[in-house]
Amino acid sequence: MPKAIRVLLIAILVTTGLVACQSSPTTIQGGEEPASPTPPAVIPTSSPPPGEPLAAIVNGQPIFLADYQQLLAEYEAALVGRGFDLDTEEGKQMLAQASRQVLDVMIEQTLIEQAAEREKVTVTDAELDAIIQRDIEEGGGAEKFAAWLQANGWTEKDYRQRLRSQLLTSKMIERVTADVPTMAEQVHARHILLASEAEAQNVLNQLLAGADFVALAQQYSQDEATKANGGDLGFFPRGILLAPEVEEAAFSLQPGQLSGIVQSQFGYHIVQVLERVTDRPLSEDALGALRDKAFRQWVDELWAAATIERYVG
Predict the structure, then answer these.
(1) Which of 72, 133, 235, 294 would give a disulfide with 186, using CB separation of 3.0 to 4.6 Å?
(2) Pick the CATH number of 3-179+289-310 from 1.10.560.10, 1.10.4030.10, 3.30.750.24, 3.30.1330.60
């Protein structure tokens, strides 16, 4: 598969939660959880207007049923390629969920492209030509590229249009996140996660009596991602932990201080701050998480302001 389209398909499927993946439910750092698109204000319509069949209309712009069905078929093929049996109950549930989520992907892409047009952000033919030529060369030449298109039921026009959409999205991400700072106040903290308040109180009592935090984290913490290193969360700024209660507790403490018992969706935490820096360069992961958050908020605003009619999903 040519690189540009492979990246585009992965982005479409993974960022909307369409391709199943698993992560530790107790990992609390590493950016926000992937968010599903914000449900739009949908105009109820029993059937599309006369003409070519539609899947949706977004701010007056049609999404054609044939395009929706093609992307849905590609998603189904991606699931099969990842080893899912679509005849099982789990497979059927995933396909049922996909019927709406695939359309959400297409609506969201339309919203982004409409915003790009309003802000006069464009992709030139020269940009597309350069990337397509690179993909052809990296893919083994024109014949292999043509064979790949044919095997996937795509035309060169299809490829070019999807690539244009991908590049427009990339440019809008850069534009929307340009003001996200690269420096921020950060704390270096660690935590111990317990399953019950009683367990947390027991561990807190031991800490207050002088027990070693690292040893207790390694012995008791339910956070498999951090227990081996004594619950160390590293340095982080505001806005990236999956447990905002832990983040709030950490930023309320000074170095060396312990929190009380902090409850979150993951369980009961005890937090200790090791260091605090007023203006520290963000790590690549933290900066990426804050940029993702800023872009997601911007997209959510597009959804909230949109007029959308759905006919499928």
Answers:
(1) 235
(2) 1.10.4030.10
